[in-house]
Amino acid sequence: MIPIRLGLQQRVLPVYRTPFFQALAADCPQGLGIFAGQPRPHEMVENQFEIPGAQVTIAKNRHFFKEPWYLCWQSGLLHWLETWQPQVLILEANPRYLLSPFAVRWMHARHRPVIGWGLGAPPTNRLRSTWRARFLHQFDAMITYSQQGADQYHAAGLSADRIFVARNAVAARPTEPAPQRPPEFANARPTIIFVGRLQARKLVDQLIQACAAQPTPPQLWIVGDGPERATLEAQAAQILPDAVFWGTRHGEELIRLLDQADLFVLPGTGGLAIQQAMSRALPVIVAAGDGTQSDLVRPENGWNVPPNDRTALQAAIAEATREASRLRRMGLASYRIVREEINLETMVAAFASAVQSVL
Predict the structure, then answer these.
(1) Domain-wise residue ranges, the chain
(2) Which of 73, 84, 230, 342 would staple 167 via disulfide (CB 3.0–4.6 Å)?
């Protein structure tokens, strides 16, 4: 349990994070307050400002410039701190958020700790490394999604005992037996599923090409929406006409689709949907990206392929779909990893450990 009044800042509150924030709130008997705002229109992020058990305050996000230079000013952050009075504050460890240093100073002036939450600190040039190290050292502890992120923060100068790994999860520890799939592929060909936002960095276009290039193309299901949907639908109509675009699906609708699929593939950046797919006993193919994938995907349950390498992706799909019985065994390994190691419960426990460390 987290025995204090906790505050947590996010730029946005995507709907897929609701189960985690709800679980975190249940672990905070003194209260969880969340401060977050709206995404930029082109991001097409579905927000969720109603979190059972948490008190959500809506920020007014002001975004300046475009990627890779964008900055964010979250109006109302200091007023929220005055109102909520958190005993510990968790901030996104992103130097692009202009009010974060003011929030840290506000907390430290009252002798209250601040914990950062971020992906990691990839290597960069010396000047930027120095500036980033100064930014990171203002936090009393750091939470990251992966061991790779932890190693990067340690390399940036943070003490290892101040770094906590909360592996990315959107699904709880399974309590029911793993879904059972038939020994052979339906209609003599596998069904591949992708779940995520349809944006360029997800590289769904490469997934369509890799499936179309197979001697017997698999059935491809694309679950999600986003700015690239029309372009991807046009591409699929030309080279993989029976690909199905399901749009956004959540809850039981998404579970039904996952349970009917044979293989989950994430060719671009991201990682949250991987753990949910694994909880439904699916083997996975993912592109090595921000480090969250390597903790989830191992030789016994899937394939890590180089990012932005369509040839490697195509080869991995060919190998994976060669034998249904092998995929079934690998899917059960996925299920075991989620049941025993990487789930909402272990993620919340890591947050609780980080909070306890700064009290």
Answers:
(1) 6-169+343-358, 186-340
(2) 342
pLDDT in tens, 242-257: 999 999 998 899 999 9
Asked whether 355 and 166 are in contact (CB, 8 A), the reply is: no
229 vs 261: CA distance, rounded Å = 21
Query: Hey, what are 179's tokens?
Result: 């879904």
pLDDT tens per residue, range 53-87: 999 999 999 999 987 788 999 999 999 999 999 99
CA–CA distance, 132 with 34 (Å, rounded to integer): 25
Please report how many Cα atoms fall inside a 13 Å half-sphere around the Cα of residue 29, on the Cβ side.
2
- Kindly state the tokens that stand for 152: 């990067």
pLDDT in tens, 104-134: 999 999 999 999 999 998 877 777 778 888 8
CB 175 within 8 Å of CB 347 = no
* Residues near 2 by beta carbon (within 8 Å), at least 6 away in sequence: 24, 27, 28, 30, 351, 352, 355, 356
Task: Output the pTM of the full model.
Answer: 0.87
284 bridge partner residues = 264, 302
Q: Please tell me the class of the 186-340 domain.
A: alpha beta
90 Cβ neighbours under 8 A, 6+ residues apart: 6, 7, 8, 9, 114, 115, 116, 117, 143, 351
| In the block, residue with structure tokens 């989830």 | 296
Closest CA relative to residue 207, chosen from 217, 34, 1, 29: 217
Bridge-partner residues for 91, per DSSP? 116
Q: Domain spanning 6-169+343-358: which CATH class is it, in words?
A: alpha beta
Same fold, 6-169+343-358 and 186-340: yes
Token pair for 248: 């956004």
**Which 3-state string (H, E, C) describes 66-96?**
CCCCCEEEEECHHHHHHHHCCCEEEEECCCC
